[in-house]
């Protein structure tokens, strides 16, 4: 509201107000990412220290899910940072994927075998999951209406 | 390398990676074509540039550490889609847990069986075990069971691409029509790339796929060490 009123007064003040608002949002998002990073680092340490059966970052996701479910962490505290990271998730593993080139000499003789494994197992997993879920979903036969309702409300 | 040189190299590598990604993303959003998948375009362009210029791949990867470090918080962020879709998860708990669990386990079982049949090298076979799940989860799994995280990362990308191209067609052919079944399959077999494709089909498909991607990641992380025992050390 204040921004609208100052826009009437002077465009410069409006622009400044908008810039402050944007900077605040950006800082908030950064703080949220820092919170997620802290959780990841803490759980990484726990995983190493106690030789836990899960990688630290996966434990971090489970812990955050539990905290959200319990209401100890509010969705609004982490939502913007999370959405930003997940939207560009593939960017963060570009370097690792390029890193495969370090191993190209070792992989070259096995390229055909690798292709066979990837094609066959991906098709099997896709069909297995899809067919089992289709069977069960049809047997279940309910919940579709709730889903449709929920999806209609969503943006 | 002096600290300042390392800093400059880091800035250049991160800026270059960001630049290629930023160019590919709008292209992908407009065309929705696999050929424009940002991760594929970026990895190909950067890989080709490194090979052409003779820059050490290891130097580039090391310089990109600031970018790779964000994989940790990004994995933690996977809790958010799961939390948002908890009502859907509760409604279809039996269907989703069974289908996704069986899917994730059969992904690993089929990799182990084929790897033994084709007599793949132990480190390659162990890098293949987690290839159906999202990269930030697949890399630490690979490291834990004696695979190579970077090989796992590349295999994950190829798996996701295959799933995105052939998945919807395959599912339609065998009569998988329900939104939650299609979503579960795309998320379990093709992680984030399959999930993006599922969102193109509809919101129910996409939301289910994001649940499947996270659950399959956790199940795979828990069970991968057991499957790795069936591979020669």
Structural summary, described in words:
The complex is a heterodimer of chains A (155) and B (233). Chain A has helices at residues 2-9, 11-49, 56-70, 75-87, 89-92, 94-98, 104-107, 111-140, 144-153. In chain A, helix 1 runs antiparallel to helix 2. The model of chain A has no long low-confidence stretch (mean pLDDT 87). The two termini of chain A are 24 Å apart. The longest helix of chain A is centred in the N-terminal third of the chain and has 39 residues, at 11-49. Chain A folds into two domains: 1-90, no CATH class; 93-155, no CATH class. With 155 residues, chain A is an all-alpha fold. The radius of gyration of chain A is 24 Å and the shape is extended. Chain B has 233 residues and is an all-alpha fold. Chain B has two domains: 3-69; 79-228, no CATH class. Helix content of chain B is 82%, strand content 0%. In chain B, helix 8 (93-117) packs across helix 12 (179-201) and helix 10 packs across helix 11 (149-173). Chain B is globular, with a radius of gyration of 18 Å. The relative contact order of chain B is 0.12. The chains are: A mainly alpha (155), B mainly alpha (233). The interface between A and B is large, with 81 and 116 residues.
Describe the structure concisely.
The complex is a heterodimer of chains A (155) and B (233). Chain A has 155 residues and is mainly alpha-helical.
Beginning-to-end CA distance, first to last residue of chain A:
24 Å
Q: Mean of the pLDDT scores of chain B? A: 92
Shape of chain B: globular
Task: Give me the secondary-structure category of chain B.
Answer: mainly alpha
Strand content of chain B: under 5%
Please give a handful of descriptors for the protein shown.
heterodimer; A: 155 residues; mainly alpha; B: 233 residues; 2 domains; 13 helices
List the helices and strands and how they pair.
The complex is a heterodimer of chains A (155) and B (233).
Chain A: H1 2-9, H2 11-49, H3 56-70, H4 75-87, H5 89-92, H6 94-98, H7 104-107, H8 111-140, H9 144-153
Chain B: H1 3-31, H2 38-53, H3 57-63, H4 65-68, H5 71-76, H6 79-84, H7 86-91, H8 93-117, H9 122-128, H10 135-144, H11 149-173, H12 179-201, H13 203-228
């Amino acid at each position: 509201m204040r921004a609208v009123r100052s826009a009437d007064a002077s465009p410069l003040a409006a622009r400044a107000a908008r810039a402050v608002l944007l900077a605040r949002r950006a800082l908030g998002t950064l703080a949220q990412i820092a919170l997620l990073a802290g959780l990841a680092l803490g759980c990484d340490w726990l995983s190493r220290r106690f030789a836990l059966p899960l990688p630290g970052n996966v434990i971090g996701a489970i812990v955050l899910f539990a905290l959200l479910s319990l209401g100890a962490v509010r969705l609004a505290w982490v939502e913007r940072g999370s959405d930003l990271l997940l939207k560009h998730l593939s960017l963060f593993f570009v370097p690792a994927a390029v890193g495969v080139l370090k191993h190209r000499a070792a992989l070259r003789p096995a390229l055909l075998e690798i292709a066979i494994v990837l094609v066959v197992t991906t098709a099997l997993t896709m069909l297995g999951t899809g067919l089992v879920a289709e069977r069960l979903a049809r047997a279940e036969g309910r919940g579709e209406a709730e889903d449709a309702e929920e999806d209609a409300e969503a943006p | 390398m002096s600290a300042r040189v390392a800093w400059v190299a880091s800035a250049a590598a991160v800026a270059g990676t960001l630049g290629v990604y930023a160019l590919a993303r709008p292209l992908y959003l407009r065309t929705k074509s696999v050929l424009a998948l940002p991760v594929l375009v970026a990895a190909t362009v950067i890989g080709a540039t490194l090979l052409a210029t003779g820059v050490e791949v290891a130097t580039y990867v090391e310089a990109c550490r600031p970018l790779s470090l964000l994989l940790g918080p990004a994995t933690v962020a996977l809790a958010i889609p799961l939390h948002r879709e908890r009502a859907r998860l509760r409604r279809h708990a039996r269907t989703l847990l069974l289908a996704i669990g069986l899917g994730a386990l059969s992904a690993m079982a089929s990799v182990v069986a084929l790897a033994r049949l084709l007599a793949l090298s132990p480190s390659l076979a162990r890098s293949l075990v987690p290839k159906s799940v999202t990269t930030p989860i697949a890399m630490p799994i690979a490291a834990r069971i004696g695979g190579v995280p970077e090989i796992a990362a590349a295999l994950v990308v190829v798996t996701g691409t295959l799933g995105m191209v052939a998945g919807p067609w395959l599912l339609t052919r065998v009569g998988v029509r329900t939104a939650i079944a299609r979503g579960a399959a795309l998320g379990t077999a093709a992680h984030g790339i399959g999930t993006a494709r599922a969102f193109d089909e509809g919101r129910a498909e996409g939301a289910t796929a994001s649940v499947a991607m996270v659950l399959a990641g956790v199940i795979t992380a828990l069970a991968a060490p057991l499957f790795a025992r069936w591979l020669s050390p």
